[in-house]
Amino acid sequence: MKADLHVHSTYSDGSDSVEEVLNQARQQGVTHLSFVDHDTVDGAQETLELGQRAGINVIPGIEISAYDFKRNRKVHVLGYAINTSAPAIRALCEPLLARRHAHSMWQMERIAKAGNAIDYNSVANLAHPGNTIYKQHIMAHLTDAPFSSPIYQTLYRSLFKGDGPAAGDIVYADAFDAVRAIKEDGGLAVVAHPGQLDSYDLISELVEIGLDGIERNHPDHDPTDHSKIDELARKYELFFTGGSDYHGSFGTHVMIGSQDSDLSNDDIFLQLCKRKMKEHW
């Protein structure tokens, strides 16, 4: 088995359609894939159907944009093998998506007032089939420069960081509510890339309400992160997961399936996902 449990599509802030992501995964020999689009399960049924046609085992997933209000830090929570009707997740995330979309509309207005030509309909088309506009869609409308290029990064910082006209953020979901919603919808809850967002201190607290795992293999993690995660996983008997965090051209260049290594309990986690999916259907 070769798994990538962290990819994004056009249902949130990825540049590639579900079909395009699946084609790339198949070319890389990936056998198990999870689309974890931010705060939405709208694409879950399509990913399952197209995955079956492509001969890839798709695990329904989500990445909830959450917050550690005790430490004032963002924390992302992954959910796997969820019931795709996901009533608890939808109840938590739909207001979050509405806030994000409204904030993006405000950002576009501010960017236009700052002298940048911007067309709402063109940006909305870039977000399709998703119904929420992200900064990535606004940036794709403003520049053809690659994500990692100095031109792109300079423009991004000038607009969305510091004193930029579109700086600021929305209120995210509470991390504890994110874990509870995933568990209520029959899924497995995993803290995403704790090294990227410094989520380590929160993990012991989330374990108390049912956290199942930690994302170990991620492009932003280094050997120090791996050691920290290994220790936490042993201490709290948590699963490891890994994924590329693929966003296509809307993110850093990374190959799908590139993080599938050194996950000693990866197969056990995948088998548990399979059993949970059978329970749902």
What does this structure look like?
The protein is 45% helix and 15% strand. It contains 11 helices and 9 strands. It has helices at residues 18-27, 44-54, 87-113, 120-127, 135-142, 150-160, 175-184, 194-197, 200-207, 223-236, 266-280, and strands spanning 3-7, 32-35, 57-58, 61-68, 73-80, 173-174, 188-191, 213-217, 239-242. The strands form 2 sheets. Strands 6-4-5-7-8-9 form a 6-stranded mixed sheet. A 3-stranded parallel sheet has the order 1-2-3. Helix 4 (120-127) packs across helix 5 and helix 9 packs parallel to helix 10 (223-236). The longest helix is centred in the middle third of the chain and has 27 residues, at 87-113. It is globular. The mean pLDDT is 95.
Beta-strand residue fraction: 5-15%
String of helices and strands:
EHEHEEEHHHHEHEHHEHEH
Instruction: Give the uncertain stretches in residue-range form.
Output: none
**SS-derived structural category:** alpha/beta
* Radius of gyration, in angstroms, nearest whole number: 18 Å
Mean pLDDT: 95
Helix percentage:
40-55%
Q: Please give the largest β-sheet.
A: 6 strands, mixed
Strand order of the largest sheet: 6-4-5-7-8-9
Number of helices: 11
- Please report the total strand number as a whole number: 9
Based on Cα principal axes, name the global outline: globular
